[in-house]
Amino acid sequence: MEIHFLFKAICFIFLVVIGIPGNAYILFTFSYIRIMEKKLMPTNIILMVLASVNFLVVLSRAIPQSLNATGLEDLLDDTMCKLVIFTYRMSRAMSICITSLLSCHQCILIAPTTGKWAYLKQKVTKNVLVIIIAIMCINLMLYPTSVMYSHARKNSTTSSYTLHLVYCDTDFLTYINYIVNGALFAARDFFCVGLMTLASTYIVYVLIRHEKSIKGIRSSDRDQGKSVEYKASRAVILLVVMYALLFGLDNCMWIYTLTLSNASPGMNDARIVLSCSYSALSPIVMISTNPKLQQIANILHRRRLIPWNHQENSGSRIHVICISK
Predict the structure, then answer these.
(1) How confident is the model at residue 311 (pLDDT cuts 50, 70, 90)?
(2) Model confidence, pTM
(3) Which of 75, 91, 271, 321 could anchor a disulfide with 57, C-beta 3.0 to 4.6 Å?
(4) For the chain, which residues make up each domain, given as ranges?
C-alpha cells in the first residue's frame, strides 16, 4: 500500500473510531435522560440533534473513505451514491447550522433579562424544536443537486466540472452549475460562521465582564458566581473555535477548488478529512464540558470498576455476619 493511501486510511479510521462511539454515546445518553426525567433542557436538545447529524456525517463520509483506502472498489451503485451523498451533505449542512444555533442560543441565555433580550429568551427557549425543523426544511430545499448530478463512478468520461467523491462522482456538467452550487453552499457556510463569530464575541464580552465583577470576591463565593450558563458558554466557545478552524480551512480549500477545472485527489482527501474532523472530534468537547454527560459517564465508570459478582459476594458476607450476630 502506498504511503498516501496508508496515511489516508489511518486518518479516516481514526475519525470513525472516535466519532461513531462519541456521538452515539451523546445521543443515547440524552435519550436516556429524556425517558427518565421526562424532559430535556433546550441546550441539551440542541446538543442531541448536533450529535445525531455528526453521527450521520461520520457514517456517510468517513466510513466509505476508510473502506476505499483499504482497497475496496465499486462498493456503491447509482442509487446508493445518491443516498450517501445526500445524507452527507444534509448532515454536514445541519451540523454547521445547529452549531450556529447553539452559539446564538447561548448568547441569548446569558444576555441581560431586559427588553428584547427577555422576549428572545422566552421565544427561542420554547421553540427550539420548531427552529431546528425550520432549519432542516430550508436545507432540504437546497440539496436537489445531490440527487440530480450524483452517480456511481464509471469508466466513461466525465466533464471537467466533476467532484470525485470516493465511489461516486458529482458531475455538474456546466461551469455555471458548478459555480452556482459552490457559491451557494459557501455563502451559507460563511453566513453561519458569521453568526457564530458575533455570538461568541458577545459571549466572551459577557464572560470577561462577569469575571471582573467577581474578581474581588472570596474564592468560595466566586465559584458560586460561576453559574451553569457561564460554564456552558465556555463549552460553546470551544465548539465554535473548533468549527472555525476546521471548517474554515475546508471552505477556503473549497473556494480554491472552484478556480480549478479539476481538483487533485489529494486536495479532495484533505478537504474530506477537515469536513469530517469537527463531527468526529466535537463529542470530546461536549462530553468533557456537559455536566449531564459527565454524570452518566461517571456512573458507568464506577459500575465498570465494581464487578457485579464482587457486589454479590460483598452482600453475602454482610448477610452472613449479621446472621452470626
Answers:
(1) very low
(2) 0.83
(3) 91
(4) 3-289
